[in-house]
Amino acid sequence: MTKGVLRLVLSFWILSGVMVAVAETKTPAIPDVEVIDQTGKEVRFYTNLVKGRTVAINFIFTSCKTSCSTATALFSGVQQHLGKRVGQDIALISVSIDPATDTPEQLKHYATMFHAGAGWAFVRSNRAETDQLLKALGAYSPDKITHTPLIVIGNDTTGNWTRLYGLASVSTIATTIRDIADHRSMPTEDLSPSGQP
Amino acid sequence: MHVCQSRASAFLLPCFIVTLLALVEWEPAWAWIDPLTPQERQGHRIYHRGGSGTGRDITARLADSSIALPASTIHCTNCHGSRGQGTDEGGLRVPSLTWSSLTSAHTSALTGTHRAPYDDSSLARAILEGRDASGHLLHTGMPRFQMSTEHLASLIAYVKQLGGESDMDAGVNPTSLALGTALPLTGPLSEIGQDVQTTLHAYMDHINQQGGIYGRKLDLVVEDSQGSPQGTVAATRRLIETHQVFALVGSFEPTGSATTNQLIAQEGIPALGPLSISPHVMTPPHTSIFYVLPGFEEQARALVNFLVSHTRELVAEQPLRIGLVFSASELDADALAGARAQAIQHNVQIVVEQRGESQQNATRTLVETLMAHRCNAVFYFGSKAELHILASEMDQKAYAPVMLSLLGMVDPLGLQLPRRISERMFFATSSRLPSTIDFGVLEPLVQTGKVRHVGFVSLAYTAASMLVEALKRSGRHITRSELIQSLEHFHEYQTGTAPPLTFSPTKRVGAHETFILGLSQDGTQPIPLSQQRMPRGQP
C-alpha cells in the first residue's frame, strides 16, 4: 500500500465560483473507534459501519449555524438519488465534530429534520477518538467553526477512496458514490484492506 | 387549578409570610416602535427563521434533489450571515446580500463570470429558481425556495434593509428593549403574579435608573395568564405577536405548558427563567428556553442518592426494598422516571410500584401490600391529601418505613403527619433556603413585605439578573440568537438568589443542586438536616 500524502488531484470543477475538488486518495487507515449512533446504539466505526461497504462520510455538528445544514441537506438528496442501495451496499455516515454537545438525542433530532432513513448513521465518539478519526480521514480542523465542507467517499472492498471538497451538487456526490461502489472509478493498486489498530 | 395552587404554595416558607402591602404603582411602559415596516418585519422572520416557524409554509430544495425541506432547516442566515455579510467559510465563498452589493455589477475573480446588478425581479428569480441576475445557475449549495408571492415580497423588502441601521430583531430599537412576561395577575395564583410583577419592575427600574443597558431602557410588558395553560398560551401569543417583545423573562409556567413552549421555541424567543415548579425539559431541549432550577426528575434522583448513601442510618434491615407510590399527573411521571432510573443505577430493588389511593379502604390495601413486600423505604409522588391518608393508615399499623417525597409536590405546611411518620420523612427541593438568599438591590422589597412569595420572587430575580448579564455580554448590537449564545456561555454565574448557573449548547437547566430536608419536631415545617436531626433506624 502506498503510504504518504494524497497522490493526485484529478480534477477541478468550477461551479459558480466555488471550487469542488475530487482527489483520489490512498486507503485511509480507519481507526475502529467506538461510536454511538442517533438511536443510542454503540457500534465500531470500521467494523460495523465501513467494513465491506461503500461509504460517504461528512462532518457536521448539530449546533452549527452555517453550512452544516446545507451539507446535511445534500446528503438527504443523495439518499434519495441512491434509493434502496443506501442501507445495502452503500452507507452514509455523518460524523459529529462536536461530540460534547451532540448527544444521541440531539443527533436523532437533527437526522429527523433531514429525513434520514436506514443506512444513514449520525455518530459521535469521545473527543480523543473523534480527533483520531478525523485525522485518519483527513478531516481534522482545530476549530469546528471553520471546518471545511468535505465528503470522504470510499469502497472498503476495493480500497478506492476519494474526497469531495466544498459543496458538490447532489448528482455529483451520488454519481461519485455509485462509481466508487461499482468499481467504475480509477483502478488502483491500493487493494489492501483498511488498516486496523 | 387547585392542584397547581397547592403545589405552588410549597415555595412559600412560613418565616417569610408577612402581610401583603399595597402594590407599588408603576409608570406606564413606553411602547416599542419598530424601525422596520410590518412587511420588512415579516421578511426578517423569513430570512432569519425560514418562515413563520411552523416549517410548513416555505420549503427549500437543493439543485438535483426533489426533497423539499422546511426552510427552517436551511434558511438565509445559515450561509449568508445574520447581517447579510456572507462568509468565506472553509473555502466556500458565500456572497454578501447587502442591498448595495446586490445592486452592483460583479465579476468573479475566480471565473471571470460577469453578473449584472440585481433588481427586485431578478432577486426573486434567484430565490425561487437559483439563477443570478445574468441568468447563470447559482451554486448548488444555494437552495431553491418555494414561498408565496407575499412572503417573497416581504423577504425582498427586508433584504433592502439587511445589515442597515434599522435591521434589528423584534423588540429592539436604538433607545429601548421590549421584554415580556406572562403572569397570573388574576385568578387563584394572582398573589404570586403580583409579587413577581413587582419584583421584575423593581429590578428593571433599578437598571433603567443607571442608564439601561448600552443606552437602551428595559421596557417590561406584563400580560395576564390567569395561571392556566390556555391563558398562558394566549398571553404569550399577545406578547410575541402584538407587543413583539424581544425576550420573555420570568414568565409563570403552569403545569401542562407544552403548547406555550412550542410557540416560544418555534419563534426562537429567548425565555429566561420561566417560573416553573418542575420544568419538563424536552430531549433535545428547546434551544431558546433557559430554566433556573431542575425539575422533579432530578430531585427524585437526588432522593434515591440520599437514601442509598444513608442506608445504614435509616434502615435497620438490609437490603433496601423500595416501594413507589404515585399518582397519574405529568409531574409525578417525571419524578417516577427519575426514581426508577436512579434505583437501577444503584442496583437497588423496587419491590412495589402502585398508584396512590384517595379512599381509606384502598389505601389500607396499599399499605398491606407495602408491608407484605417488606418495603423499608417508600417514595411518595402524589397529592398532599392522599399522603395524609396513607400516613394515617401506616401509623395505625405501626408501619414506619423511611418516607421520601418532593417539597414542590407535597407541601408539609399544616399536613399534621403522625409523629411516627414525620420523624422518618424527607423532602427534596431545588429551591434555596430563604436564609441563604441574597436579594441584593431588592432586599428592601422583601424586608418590608412588599413581596411575600419568596420562592417565586427569588426565581424572578434570578431570571432578571440572567437577562441583564446576558445583555451586557452580548454588546450593543443585540439579537435574539446572540442573547441565546451569551446564555450558553454562562459558567457558574452567581445571582445570589439561585445556585451558580451553568448553561451550554445542550444544557438548558442552570443549577443542579438539590437539598434534602427533614421535618421539625411538630412535623409541620421543613428544616435542614443536621447530624442531630438524622433520624433513627428502622423501629
Structure at a glance:
Chain A is of the alpha+beta class and 197 residues long.
Chain pair with largest interface: A-B, 43 and 39 residues
Query: What class would the helix/strand composition of chain B place it in?
Result: alpha/beta
Q: Can you give the mean pLDDT of chain B?
A: 88
C-alpha Rg of chain B, in Å?
Answer: 28 Å
How many runs of DSSP E, i.e. beta strands of chain B? 19
The shape of chain B, in one word, is elongated
Number of strands of chain A: 9
Give, in spatial order, the strands making up the sheet with the most strands of chain A: 1-2-9-8-5-6-7-3-4
What does this molecule look like?
The complex is a heterodimer of chains A (197) and B (539). Chain A is α+β, with helices and mostly antiparallel strands. Helices cover 27% and strands 27% of the residues of chain A. Chain A has helices at 45-50, 68-82, 104-113, 127-136, 170-181; strands at 8-15, 18-25, 34-37, 42-44, 54-60, 90-96, 120-124, 150-155, 160-165. Chain B is an alpha/beta fold. Chain B is built from 18 helices and 19 strands. In chain B, the strands form five sheets. Chain B has a seven-stranded mixed sheet with strand order 14-13-15-16-17-18-19, with helices on both faces. In chain B, helix 7 (190-209) runs parallel beside helix 17 (454-474), helix 8 runs parallel beside helix 9 and helix 13 (360-372) packs across helix 14 (384-396). Chain B starts with a helix and ends in an 11-residue tail after the last strand. Classes of the chains: A alpha+beta (197), B alpha/beta (539). The interface between A and B is large, with 43 and 39 residues.
